[in-house]
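User: Hi! I'm working on a homework problem where we have to compare a predicted structure to a textbook description. Could you give me the structure for the chain below?
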Amino acid sequence: MAVTIGAVAKAAGVSVSTVSRALNTPDLVNAATRQRVVAAAERLGYTPNPAARSLREGRTESLGLLIPDITNPFFPPIFKAMQERAKRQGYTLLVADSDEREADELETIAAVSKKVDGLVLWASMLPEDRLAELAERMPVVLVNRQVEGVSEVHVSLTDGIAQAAEHLKAYGHQRCVFVDGNGNRPDQSRSKSIRAAFDAHGLSLIEIGPYEPRFETGVHAAPLVLAHQATAVLAHNDLVAMGVLHQLAALGAAVPNDISVVGIDDTLLASVSTPSLTTIRIDPDEVASRAVDLLIGLVHGRPPALPVVQVGSRLIPRGTTGPARRDPRQ
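Assistant: Happy to help. Predicted structure tokens:
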């Protein structure tokens, strides 16, 4: 028969509630008692029953992650890292895709929220009032979406973009294009950061878009980039950058001899493309750990000291950037 928590309590000479606290919230029990309980549990081979604990505490021991596009190669490493982080803390992670549509996001939240203790919403399309209302009903962490009073993990591209602008400036680039893949998302911080960084380095920046952040967007944008006679292009993400590279090759433009290309995210695509893609790296493990830890803290009634947790970025120079060709109009 399975060893019960009562047997552990008897062996350790403490109450059942003390055993529960020692194993589940050890900070609430003094060190000597905790060690005695743990030793008794190990000696008897006691294993907590997660299902019983969930029923007792009214929890599902599951967390939800809602992402905008599961086909984007940026997200699988995020999901895997979050899953591992959650698992280490006794939680299962459920993932769903909103397909970048507000209606789908609402429908998915309605279905998933009944099955999880808290939600991580990545680049949510919902209005601020909806998100604030949801956060009042259950623990919610936003990623790359700022709503007053709602906990957020903010992926700051400031350093990475500044490094990209500095990198292009050093190579002699002056006329650049940004392919905006923000679609109709409420958060416009990416394009604002890019404009500010390129202005600060004295680089001319032409923006095209906004489009959806997909491979096809890069294919569509490539001839527009050439039409503007730019010597460098910064794409919204690696997926868009891969579309740009594909179509530039089809149009006979050499990278980086004729034009330099920079992506954002540092997905697997960036390192295996030919030439390998210069990109701005976002660390999936750091984003995952921050988001999961923040959400589990909220689930257990531990609000963060600061409402916004920031994760940085950095440039990874590779083979798609090089010296600018001479502007033919000069």
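For your comparison, note the following. The first helix runs from residue 5 to 12. Residues 5-48 form a domain with the 434 Repressor (Amino-terminal Domain) fold (CATH 1.10.260.40). Good luck with the assignment!
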